[in-house]
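User: Teach me something about this protein's shape.
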Amino acid sequence: MFRHAAIAVLIAGSAAAGEAGPDAAAIFASGEADQLWQRLSPDMQEAVGSADALAELRAGLGDETQMIAESSLKLNGLTTYRRLSEWDGSDEPLMLTLASDDAGEISGFLLTPEPRLPDDDAPPVSGLQLPFAGEWLVFWGGDDLAHNYHAADPAQRYAVDLVIAEGGASFDGDPLQLESYHCWDQPILAPAAGRVVAAIGDLPDQPIGESDESAPAGNHVVIETAPQRYLFLAHLRQGSLGVAQGDEVAAGQQIGTCGNSGNTSEPHLHIHAQTEPVLGQGTGLPLEFTDYLSGGARVENGALLRGQIVAPAG
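Assistant: First, the predicted structure itself:
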């Protein structure tokens, strides 16, 4: 998952929506700050400061007048709930993000103004194939902030982050070992035919808990599929690249394997398209994939949305 303005992701939380997030959001909206305070973890209470500070924050918002969008995603025993709403005490919509465990304890609480979203009338990059085999979970994906935190970044407006989730977890065994993650070293394929305009493959994979903000994309490949159509596939494993700058690649050709290089929190694949070949420059473009399965149903052409389990139809 790419971290803002540069590429990073974030894994917090499988495809089942939990009840703790919506319930806690409803408690917060009702003004029951003391009740919400009791559900915060000790670390979260320390970060907020006090029950009075939470109550003061809530009182300044007025009433929640409209819920615009929401999403909930559970992974690794943690449910991440995002709710974008309008409040009569705020001039702009606010994004409430809550992270909670299976017991309902809230270990993450964040309330931020909605960033101004870039225009969404960019033409899509269509006819893409999924860049992997098997079933993967869309952790971030969509064109609004509730489903995709990348949406506020003009160049990564429609970026998608994916992991493999088995039994509701992205790893099995020691979570500090990269080899424990299901998507680690899985083949990554070219989503479309084109020319490789950038290929970086010698950066180290980051230990869990660390990241490289100086090289946010980490090991990555950029494929030019048409004029002003550049696909970025990032966070690849060190030494895994099988292509080089200037190569012509075919759709479905392996370009590397999934890693944990760059500004990332755990192994995953990040993919986005933009109009310029330099990361962060130009306009982000929608991604349209063809002939794949979403939740077991065949999709002829569509965009990937947070929470979907997707796989190539073939």
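Now, about its shape. Residues 20-30 form the longest helix (11 residues). Helices lie at 20-30, 33-39, 42-48, 51-59. If you'd like, I can walk through any region in more detail.
User: That's plenty for now, thanks!
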